[in-house]
């Protein structure tokens, strides 16, 4: 946003300079027309004179004035050419600044869009994380209930000792394995005796 504001200020400065130069150009053109009108008026005035000597003096004066005016015209034409060149350069600079401003706006829009996408992805990840936590809590609860059932089954057998608080998973597995082994052995003995 700062870059765009800076470019806009530069464009305003360049356009102001362009208006000033065009104003100077118009002023020079008016002065040129005024000089041409003065020459024409002098020519008309001197044409009405009839005295030869005076006519000669007037002719000399007119030639001098013409030379001066031609010099002024040449200088003003040169200034106008420089002003026109400067105007072209300023217009080119303004076009470049406007193009830069458009590019900067497009980049800003892209950054905003990327930021929105990242924010949307972050929200989706947070939602997924919440779902995963809920699922994990559910699985943990089911596992704890299953573990308690195993403990109850393992220590409810006749002759087994009461479970102590804070049993480890290895101790629970060991108790279950003991029950399985005993039942397997009991089944084998029954089979050997021919009992169904």
TrEMBL record:
Domain of life: Eukaryota
Coiled coil (residue ranges): 4-45, 73-128
InterPro entries, alphabetized: CC-FHA_domain
Key words of the record: Coiled coil
PANTHER family, sorted: COILED-COIL DOMAIN-CONTAINING PROTEIN 27, FORKHEAD-ASSOCIATED DOMAIN-CONTAINING PROTEIN 1-RELATED
Descriptive protein name: CCD27 protein
The species this protein was found in: Leucopsar rothschildi
Lineage of producing organism: Eukaryota, Metazoa, Chordata, Craniata, Vertebrata
